[in-house]
TrEMBL record:
GO terms for molecular function: FAD binding; oxidoreductase activity, acting on paired donors, with incorporation or reduction of molecular oxygen, NAD(P)H as one donor, and incorporation of one atom of oxygen. NCBIfam families: PRK08132.1. It comes from Candidatus Dechloromonas phosphorivorans. The keyword Transmembrane does not apply. Its cofactor is FAD. The keyword Flavoprotein applies. This is FAD-dependent oxidoreductase. Residues 26-365 form the FAD-binding domain.
C-alpha cells in the first residue's frame, strides 16, 4: 500500500458465458485494462462499437510506473473524456533543465508558443490515469469491463480469434471478430501466438524511488550528469501529484537489483541528494533496465497489438504510454470504419505501417538518449562530457545534449493514406502531421480547435466572409456530408458572419489558425478522425476532396 493513494478493488462479476455455457461472440475484445487497452475500448464504445475488456487483475497499476503524459496524449485523452481529470490532478510543466556536476548547462521549453489548451507535459502517477479511465469506461453502454478474467489461450482464425478465459468461478470461451492485445511488455497473448519481439536490451540498471516530501522545487524536469551527490552517474527528478517526487538513479549494470531496492541502500542515496535536513518518506521503489524492442508488425490477421505489447522503449523521454495511447488513436477509427463496412480491412494494414514507423522513430530517439546518458566507452564518455562543458557557453553544443528527447507525435508524412501537396505551403501542417491547436469561436462561444475536431473526417475551408459564400459552393460543401464516409465541412474565417444554412463557422479571431496552418482564403484542410492532416489545397474542389477521402480510407481503386 502507498501512503498517498488507496488502491480501489474492482468488483468481479461472473460473465454471462459461465451461466449459459455457450461461447460468446463480440465485435471487439481487448486484452489488458491498462492505459492503452482502456483508451482503445473507450474510443470504440463512444462510437457505438460493443467492446469486452479482459484483465487478470482487479485494481490499477502498482506504484507510479508511467509518469509523464505529453501534450498529444492529453489531446487524445480529452476526446475520450478524461483529459480534464488528468490535468486537474497532475503537475503541468513545460521547462526542463540539465545539469553537469553542479552547474546548469542547458534548458528547454516544450511549449514556447502561447494559445494552446494543454501544456507540453503533465506528471501524473499511472494509477490515477487508470482510475480515471475505468471510471469513464463504466459510464459507457456497450463496454463490458471484466476484472479477474485471465486469458489462458488464443486461437486465431480467418474471421477472428477464440479465447479461453479463467475466472474465480471457472473457465469459459469467447470469440472476437477483432482482438486488440494491450497486455503489456510481457504480453502473454504474444507468447501464446509464438510471435517475436526484437531489439536491444541495454546493459545498465536504474533505480526508481518515489518519495513523499514537502519541497518548493518548481514544476520542471531536472536531470543531472555526474552530480556530486551521485558521482559518475545520472539522476532525474520529477514532481508528481500529492507531493510525490520521482527520482531515477543510474546504478550501472553490475548493481544487484534486489540489494539496491532495500531501504538501507535507497535512503542514503536520497539523503545525499536532498540534504540531511530534508524530511521525506519512501513510498515505492523499483529497478529497471532499458529495452528498445518491437514486433516486426503490429497486425496479425484479426489480432492487433498496441502499446508495450507491440513495442518497448527506455523510460527517458516519456515515450511508452504516450506512444501506446497514439497507437489506440490510430487504430480505432480505422477499425470502426472496417466494422461498419465503410472501408476494406486493408485499411488496418496502415495501422501497422504507420505505428511501426512511429515505433522506429521512438526507438531511434530512445537509443540515442540511452547512448548519451550511459556511454559505452571512454571515448564516448569524453565526448559527452566535452559537449556538456561546452553547452554552458556555446549554443551549438546545447543541440547535442541528450538527456532524453521527450515524446512528440510522429509526422506520418510517408503514409499511403496521405494525398501529396500540389500547392505550396509553409509551416509544419504537412499531410501526415498531427494538428496544431488554436483558440477559436463559434456563435460567440470560445473553444479550442482540437476540442471540436476528431472522431470523424472534417474539411476545414478558409473563407474571407462566411456570409458571402456562394450558394452553389455551399451546396457542394453540404453534398460531401452524404458521402459513404461521414465528412463534415466547416468554414474557418477571421471575420464573424452567419454561414449558409447547414454549415458551421469557426472564427479565427486571433489568427492562430491562419498562422499555424499557413491558411489564406480558399485554403482547404482535410483532417482524419485522429486529428492528423491527410490532404490540403489552396482552393476547394469537391472531386479532389472525395478522391483524398477515398485514399485516406483505402477506398480508391
Amino acid at each position: 500500500m502507498l501512503g498517498t493513494y488507496s488502491y480501489p478493488k474492482f468488483e468481479y462479476v461472473a460473465p454471462p458465458e459461465l451461466k449459459s455455457g455457450e461461447t460468446g461472440r463480440y465485435p471487439v475484445v481487448v486484452v489488458g485494462a491498462g492505459p492503452v487497452g482502456l483508451a482503445a475500448a473507450i474510443e470504440l464504445a463512444q462510437s457505438g462499437v460493443p467492446v469486452v475488456v479482459l484483465d487478470d487483475d482487479n485494481t490499477v497499476s502498482v506504484g507510479s510506473r508511467g509518469v509523464c503524459y505529453a501534450k498529444r496524449a492529453l489531446e487524445i485523452l480529452d476526446r475520450i473524456g478524461v483529459g480534464d481529470a488528468c490535468v486537474a490532478r497532475g503537475v503541468s510543466w513545460n521547462v526542463g533543465r540539465t545539469f553537469f556536476r553542479e552547474e546548469e548547462v542547458y534548458n528547454f521549453n516544450l511549449l514556447p508558443q502561447p494559445d494552446h489548451k494543454r501544456p507540453g507535459m503533465i506528471n501524473l502517477q499511472q494509477y490515477y490515469l487508470e482510475e480515471f479511465l475505468v471510471r469513464r469506461a463504466r459510464e459507457l453502454p456497450g463496454l463490458d469491463l471484466r476484472f479477474r478474467n485471465k486469458v489462458v489461450s488464443v486461437s486465431p482464425a480467418g474471421n477472428g480469434a477464440t479465447l479461453q478465459v479463467e475466472t474465480p468461478d471457472g473457465a469459459y470461451a469467447l470469440t472476437a471478430d477483432w482482438l486488440i492485445v494491450a497486455d503489456g511488455a510481457r504480453s502473454a497473448v504474444r507468447g501464446m501466438m509464438n510471435l517475436d519481439i526484437e531489439g536491444r536490451v541495454f546493459l545498465d540498471r536504474f533505480l526508481i524511488a518515489d518519495v513523499v516530501m514537502k519541497a518548493d522545487f518548481p514544476a520542471e524536469r531536472w536531470f543531472w550528469f555526474d552530480p556530486p551527490f551521485h558521482p559518475g552517474q545520472s539522476v532525474l527528478l520529477h514532481r508528481q501529484a500529492d507531493s510525490v517526487y520521482r527520482i531515477d538513479f543510474q546504478l550501472g549494470w553490475q548493481a544487484d537489483p534486489e540489494e539496491e531496492k532495500k531501504p538501507e541502500k535507497v535512503i542514503p542515496r536520497i539523503r545525499a541528494m536532498l540534504g540531511a535536513d530534508r524530511e521525506f518518506e519512501l513510498e515505492w521503489v523499483s529497478v529497471y533496465t532499458f529495452q528498445c524492442r518491437r514486433m516486426q508488425q503490429f497486425r496479425h490477421g484479426r489480432v492487433l497489438f498496441v502499446g508495450d505489447a507491440a513495442h518497448q522503449v527506455s523510460p527517458f523521454g516519456a515515450r511508452g504510454a504516450n506512444s501506446g495511447i497514439q497507437d489506440s488513436d490510430n487504430l480505432c477509427w480505422k477499425l470502426r470504419l472496417v466494422l461498419d463496412g465503410k472501408a476494406p480491412d486493408s485499411l488496418l494494414d496502415s495501422y501497422s505501417e504507420e505505428r511501426v514507423f512511429a515505433a522506429d522513430e521512438n526507438i531511434m530517439n530512445s537509443t540515442r538518449s540511452t547512448d548519451f546518458i550511459t556511454p559505452k566507452s571512454r571515448t564516448s564518455l569524453n565526448f559527452r562530457n566535452a559537449v556538456l562543458t561546452l553547452a554552458r557557453d556555446h549554443a551549438f553544443a546545447r543541440t547535442l545534449v541528450n538527456s532524453g528527447r521527450l515524446s512528440v507525435p510522429s509526422f506520418l508524412t510517408g503514409s499511403r493514406l496521405n494525398t501529396p501537396d500540389d500547392d505550396a505551403f509553409a509551416g509544419d501542417m504537412v499531410p501526415g502531421a498531427p494538428m496544431d491547436d488554436a483558440p477559436m469561436q463559434e456563435d460567440g462561444t470560445e473553444f479550442w480547435l482540437l476540442d471540436r475536431v476528431g472522431n470523424r473526417f472534417m474539411a476545414l475551408v478558409h473563407v474571407e466572409d462566411p456570409a458571402a459564400v456562394d450558394a452553389n459552393l455551399a451546396r457542394e460543401f453540404k453534398s460531401l456530408a452524404g458521402e459513404p464516409i461521414p465528412l463534415e465541412v466547416v468554414l474557418v474565417s477571421a471575420k464573424p458572419g452567419r454561414a449558409p444554412e447547414g454549415l458551421r463557422v469557426f472564427e479565427d479571431g486571433r489568427g492562430r489558425f491562419a498562422e499555424r496552418y499557413d491558411s489564406t482564403p480558399g485554403t482547404v484542410y482535410l483532417i482524419r478522425p485522429d486529428q492528423h492532416v491527410t490532404a490540403r489545397w489552396r482552393a476547394f474542389d469537391a472531386g479532389r476532396v472525395k478522391a483524398a477521402l477515398a485514399r485516406a480510407t483505402c477506398n480508391s481503386h
